[in-house]
Amino acid sequence: MSEHSIDIPVATAGSGVPRELRDALGALARTERLLVALDFDGTLAPTVDDPAQARALPEARSAVDRLVALESTRVALVSGRALESLEEVAGVGDETLLVGSHGIEVRLDSPDDAFTLDEDEQARLGLLGDVLDQVADNVDEVWIETKPAGFALHTRLATEHDSRVAHLVALSEARAEVDDVTVRSGKDVLEFSVRSTTKGEAVEHLRRYTGATAVFYAGDDVTDEDAFEALGSDDLGLKSGDGATAADYRVGGPEDVAHVLSLLAELRRVALGITH
User: Fold this and answer.
1) DSSP characters over 155-172
2) DSSP letters of 151-214?
3) CATH fit for domain 6-114+197-271, picks 3.40.50.1000, 3.20.20.140, 3.30.830.10, 3.20.20.70
4) How many Cα atoms are found within 13 Å in the side-chain-facing hemisphere of 255?
5) Which of the four CATH numbers 1.10.10, 3.30.70, 1.10.4160, 3.40.1350 does domain 119-193 have?
């Protein structure tokens, strides 16, 4: 946790958001051009065993819609999911910017943005897939998710022992067989990629793209720490759930994140002078 980080117990929407965080959100809401960048799983949506069934909480979805509708305000979802998967579960309109695969894939305002791998990357991707398929085939309740530049080894349904074995073998074999493979560890998932980028780089790209004068970022996983580290003094980072973090504030989980986003949407509306 960062030196100035504060744990915020947000119990219910009725109890309101504590003053420390409310004041910080109020200052953020007055910025000229605001970027609200959000992780999806564990942040807007509760974590579920079947990733395809994840959906944002109704209050979070409503808050996102209200933020999207405000002038001088952009909303982006920044996820480890492949872009196609993120589009399916998020169900947001074209006004929402999307970043998938930890920054490798993007959906901005132009449909011309495309993702391609060169021949060397394609060859390494094929070899990586063969290695991980062998691991999954030999450990119960372990499965592989295909991504544009790599694969995710999911162990949420496996026993603790089998999960540990799968992670150790996958790491050893992938690093031995595939050159320049990038590995990221998440909650019950190990991700392997033949192209390296981070959510921090994604946030910086979005900041430049939108011309944001301040950024709000919320996330729950280890991979979100890169994004928190990329934030500056005028920005605000919100950690969802447990774990060490560089975020400025922490809340208990997606329900609390939804309350915070609802408040931010209202404060931004007031700051923009919208009275209806």
Assistant:
1) -TTS-HHHHHHHHHHHHH
2) EEEE-TTS-HHHHHHHHHHHHHHHHHHSTT-EEEEETTEEEEESS---HHHHHHHHHHHHT-SE
3) 3.40.50.1000
4) 9
5) 3.30.70
Cα distance between residue 206 and residue 99, in whole Å? 9
Looking at residue 57, what is its pLDDT? Answer: 98
Q: Which residue has the tokens 């162990």?
A: 155
Q: CB-based burial of residue 211 (10 Å sphere; 0-12 exposed, 13-18 middle, 19+ buried)?
A: exposed
The angle at the Cα of 275, spanning 270 to 276, to the nearest 5 degrees, equals: 125
Using one digit for the tens of pLDDT, what is the confidence trace for 200-217? 999 999 999 999 999 999
DSSP state of 236: E
Instruction: Assign 85 to helix, strand or coil.
Output: helix
Calpha distance 147→193 (Å, rounded): 8
Residue keyed to tokens 């605001």: 34
- DSSP structure class, residue 263: H
Average pLDDT along the chain: 91
